[in-house]
Amino acid sequence: MPTEGNGLADEAGLFELAPAKINLALHVTGQRADGYHLLESIVTFADTGDGLSFFAAEEDGFTVSGRFAHLLPPDAAGQDGNLVLKARDLLRRMLEKRGIPTPPVAIHLEKNLPVAAGIGGGSADAAATLRGLLRFWDAGMPEPELASLALSLGTDVPMCLRSEALMAKGIGEDLTELATLPSLPLVLGNPLVGVSTPDIFRRLMRKDNPPIGALDGDWLPVLKTLRNDLEPPARSLVREIDQISNLIGAEGAMLTRMSGSGATCFGIFPSSEAAQKAAENLNGQKPDWYFQAVQTVGTGQ
């Protein structure tokens, strides 16, 4: 249970959002000798996501709630396979080597995003854990070391750590801010079918696709010329991706595309009001699926 005591967080705890990651475009441009795929991706983040709370405690603890808590692995509160706890433990070891105190912390994860959905998931949660614990423990770390720690947790974690509009290259570690990318009203949709990223990559027929190229002009026409190279293999594996993309498109989206390795698709709408109305309509049509109107980070937000 949370307790008073170390002065680093009050009884109300400290909150950190783990925003949904959206790949507006994702090109697979090569593969390294170690098997990692080389990517170029335009990445942005939503104003909604999972939530992590950090409380002073007598001993470390971890709890989960939220719509999708039941979809986490059975060992979610244990060490194996849980990125929140791995992030906590790796960060603690690095800080303790610097002589920085890292007293016990109770972490609560509110799981609002679908699992294995191509929108960050565990990577966003791990990144939020790093940000939250650095605040909770009142600690600092040189940016290169923090980026290296994030990458050790997963190739999506460095971009989720920054949670801003980015061009991601390499295996996800080469990040450049996209200062002109506007804030976009989107609808996210997922049929609640988990997708295995390794399975999608195994089905990828070509791994040396053309790169993204210059990003000149208005963003929407530019995005329409791009693609997600993982979408065709994902559609062959999960037939619902076709359906969810068509449903979002039928609500008036100006562009629909799959994010990451799926199965989440997004639609870009003319306004936040249009996106909200579309999400309401879609939730009425498919109440057992996931639809959410969001606004992304970017200029004009």
From TrEMBL:
Q: Which Pfam families match?
A: GHMP_kinases_C, GHMP_kinases_N
GHMP kinase N-terminal domain: residues covered = 82-162
Which molecular function term from Gene Ontology is one that the record holds? 4-(cytidine 5'-diphospho)-2-C-methyl-D-erythritol kinase activity
Query: Which InterPro entries does the record match to this protein?
Result: GHMP_kinase_C_dom, GHMP_kinase_C_sf, GHMP_kinase_N_dom, IspE, Ribosomal_Su5_D2-typ_SF, Ribsml_uS5_D2-typ_fold_subgr
Q: In which pathway does it act?
A: Isoprenoid biosynthesis; isopentenyl diphosphate biosynthesis via DXP pathway; isopentenyl diphosphate from 1-deoxy-D-xylulose 5-phosphate: step 3/6
Which residue range or ranges hold the GHMP kinase C-terminal domain? 216-283
Q: Which residues bind ATP?
A: 114-124
Catalysis: reaction(s)? 4-CDP-2-C-methyl-D-erythritol + ATP = 4-CDP-2-C-methyl-D-erythritol 2-phosphate + ADP + H(+)
- Identify which residues the record assigns to the active site: 21, 156
Function according to Swiss-Prot or TrEMBL: Catalyzes the phosphorylation of the position 2 hydroxy group of 4-diphosphocytidyl-2C-methyl-D-erythritol.
Q: Which family is this protein grouped under?
A: Belongs to the GHMP kinase family. IspE subfamily.
UniProt protein name: 4-diphosphocytidyl-2-C-methyl-D-erythritol kinase
Q: Which gene encodes it?
A: ispE
